[in-house]
Amino acid sequence: MLHNLKLIFVHGINNQTTNYSRDLYLKILKVCKMLLEAKGMSAADIDEALSSVVQHEVFWASLTTDLTNRYLQLAYQHPNFFWNRLTRGVDPLGLQIMHYIKDKGDKDTGNMNILKEVDREVRRIMTFADIGEDPSPKQGQNVIIIAHSLGAVIGFDYVMGFRENVRLDPAVNVKSFITMGSPVPLFTSAMGYPDSDLVLPANVERWVNISSPRDVIARPAQPFFHNIHIDEHMVSTRFFPLAAHTAYFKDNQTAAIIAAEVIRALGHQK
């Protein structure tokens, strides 16, 4: 049984703040408790098992805040007409996506700017000695990555090791790579690979993709990756498309799907 499991939430565009994923994390723990109770575990054993499940967050939008704010300062220094009100809400979202695409790295040197901060943050999480218990070597390197929207693209690129100097440490064991509201197929297709022959790296056990039928950003992943078995889950979040895209963090179905992955990772699944 694992005694340290890190849930790493990778956030995408828009202005998420610290603990943006806290409600979802608590829902996940609540469902986990119910599942373990159904298995007949004692309250003490359940508390011990779930005390090792630790929440961490990696943000993208916060890394681009200064660049985005400077753009807005220059673009909207004139009177704020009605059209400005519309575009001022759209521009930051487009900018954050373009920041990521642009920051793929220099083709000669591989040097990157903002993505280094993502890599630094993930490595910081992986080297925390005081989070949870590590009764045996590398127990603290077991993770579930839960990535939303552009964060799913960032997580996908990261775990697949697409950049030599910014990639997941092979010593880290990804028990589940979970994408929510993911546009990954749009990005891989735009790079020229609508039909991918990729396989999961040896240290990534499984890929779970969660989408809502009314989410205009989310795409099914399985049709695009012939050599990877992807567990596809459809959930009903919200009615309006953009609301449906962000509502995974409040959704009970989403929490239940992730909770099942946590139970499996901890070693309590039949």
Descriptive notes:
With 270 residues, this protein is α/β, with parallel strands linked by helices. It has a single domain, classed as 3-Layer(aba) Sandwich (Rossmann fold), CATH 3.40.50.1820. Helices cover 40% and strands 14% of the residues. It has nine helices and six strands, in the order E-H-H-E-H-H-H-E-H-E-H-E-E-H-H. The protein has helices at 22-38, 43-50, 65-75, 82-102, 114-126, 150-159, 184-190, 241-246, 252-266; strands at residues 5-10, 53-58, 142-148, 173-180, 207-211, 230-234. Strands 2-1-3-4-5-6 form a six-stranded parallel β-sheet, with helices on both faces. Strand 4, helix 7 (184-190) and strand 5 form a beta-alpha-beta unit. Mean pLDDT is 82; it is low at 129-137.
Q: What features would you highlight for this structure?
A:
270 residues; alpha/beta; Rossmann fold; six-stranded parallel beta sheet; 9 helices; single chain; 6 strands
> How many distinct folded domains?
1
Largest sheet: 6 strands, parallel
Gyration radius, in Å: 19 Å
Overall spatial form: globular
Poorly predicted runs are 129-137
Mean residue pLDDT: 82
Strand coverage percent: 5-15%
Structural class: alpha/beta
Secondary structure topology:
Layout: E1 5-10, H1 22-38, H2 43-50, E2 53-58, H3 65-75, H4 82-102, H5 114-126, E3 142-148, H6 150-159, E4 173-180, H7 184-190, E5 207-211, E6 230-234, H8 241-246, H9 252-266
Parallel strand pairs: 1-2, 1-3, 3-4, 4-5, 5-6
Helix pairs in contact: 1-2, 1-9
